[in-house]
Amino acid sequence: MTISEFSAKYLPSLVALYKTYTAPNNLAVSMINVVCHLPYFVRFQKAPECSNLVLLQATRMANAKTDPSDPEIIGETCQFLSTLLVLQGTSAIPPDVKQKLVKKLNTWKRRYDGQFAGETSGRCYDSLTGDRAMTQMAPMFKEILEKPLNQCAAQGCNCRVEAAGPELKQCSRCKSVVYCGVLHQRQHWAEHKRMCFPASF
Question: Among 38, 121, 147, 150, which is most buried by a count of CB atoms within 10 Å?
Fold first, then answer.
């Protein structure tokens, strides 16, 4: 089973599993980290049942009684939060949670400077403190992640989802790419079929 097929079938169950945990790092986080760059997750995190993911993860991290001793676990935990911050923003996180979390992130990015944990915690820290460079880059990262949902997938086509523009149609099978018309959908099928699976959501 490919990660695309897994995402299409099991993302709702995986997010439901994530919500049953209380620790900021868990099996569900590890699994979501593998698929969070795919359009399946990018689309699903817009669903009502996912609207509070960034708040939930930030709160769990801020309120954790002890920090992981393994920097790889810290890196993975922060990687998940970093993706959620790009996709869902920071506005849902209350000031008190943000304050506690920023303090932890600052410690981690200094302690693990030059390591994956330092890099991911630094990204989260910059997002939550309004770093100018991160504020400018976050929308670009979000646009890249959302591109399959907002721009015709056919090579060279620049048709995008616009309020006043032509309506783009979802792939009816995976619902995770869009096309400006049947011709471009057919042209792209040879490439897309490897990642196209019936979505359960």
Answer: 121
Q: What is the pLDDT of residues 51-96, one digit of tens each?
A: 999 999 999 999 999 999 999 999 999 999 999 999 999 999 999 9
pTM over 0.85: yes
Q: What are phi and psi of 72, to 5 degrees?
A: -65, -35
Q: What is the pLDDT of residues 93-113, one digit of tens each?
A: 999 999 999 999 999 999 999
The pLDDT score that the predictor gives to residue 167 is 84
Using CA atoms of 33, 127, 108, 24 in order, give the dihedral in degrees to the nearest 10.
Answer: -40
Question: What is residue 166's predicted lDDT score, i.e. its pLDDT?
Answer: 67
3-class DSSP string for the chain? CCHHHHHHHHHHHHHHHHHHCCCCCCHHHHHHHHHCCCHHHHHHCCCHHHCCHHHHHHHHHHHCCCCCCCHHHHHHHHHHHHHHHHHHCCCCCCHHHHHHHHHHHHHHHHHCCCCHHHHHHHHHHHHHHCCHHHHHHHHHHHHHHHHHHHEECCCCCCCECCCCCCCCEECCCCCCCEECCHHHHHHHHHHHCCCCCCCCC
187 exposure class (CB count in 10 Å sphere: 0-12, 13-18, 19+)? middle
